[in-house]
Design goal:
Elements (H helix, E strand, L loop, with lengths): L1 E4 H9 L1 H9 L8 H18 L8 H14 L7 H21 L8 E9 L4 E13 L2 E8 L10 H14 L3 E8 L4 E5 L3 H20 L23 H11 L2
Parallel strand pairs: 1-3, 4-5
Antiparallel strand pairs: 2-3, 3-4, 5-6
Helix pairs in contact: 1-2, 3-4, 3-5, 4-5, 6-7
Bound molecules: iron/sulfur cluster.
The site of iron/sulfur cluster has 14 residues, from helix 2.
Length: 247
Amino acid sequence: MFKLSSFRLRVFRECRRRYRYRYVEGMPTRPSAHNTMGAHVHNTLKAFFSLPEPEERTPERLLDLLLESWQQNRSGFSDLDDEERWRERAAAQMRTFAREHDLAARPLLLECYLATPISPQLALLGRIDRVDDDADGLHVIDYKTGRRPEEVDVQQLHLYTVMLERSLGRPVARASYLYLDDGTAWSACPQRRELEEALAEVNTAYNEIVNERDYPTTVGRHCSFCDYQSICPSREEIVGRRLHSGW
Ligand code: SF4
């Protein structure tokens, strides 16, 4: 069965050539500082909310857990100063989290991996960071370690909602992104029509993926985060666009 995650869908939508390199040819990606930091922050929050006694959940413990996680993987940084900058950013995110959010919350699920068939050929894959069982129903939460974008892409939350509802057989009342840099949240109550539209979009993308033969490049700001710039046939255009646009 073909498996699609929201990240994989986004890669396909942004640049089909990058999709080919990563998912068709299976070319490796380099460790990146942001991915390493993001993994540590997610590990820390999972370990923190797994502590059984709410009184153990102090801001100091949150920072201790971050440092413990950090020792396990220090890849992706250019040098020690670079690593220190990223570690301080992660620590700042944890301090902000401790200030802005309920540390005594008792999540129903933490880092929940789901694979949900949505047709005979296709399954959705996803890892939901956290699910709370709030008074008004299930609450899907996704932590974001990057900066809050000007426009929120809700597809990921809609797909998580579909997967969770089908897995637990219960409706989701709310879905949120928690932006850890500034401590803000973006929340919505997913509507049936929106969930159906998200599934239709996945099925459309699936049909395009299995019929794609050329995998054209699409140059844009996202090229800055692509591991395959050195082999990309559009690299000269990328250099020119970057000089012109400043990204
Ligand atoms: S560098 Fe840009 S255009 Fe080239 S494969 Fe990567 S994302 Fe696509």
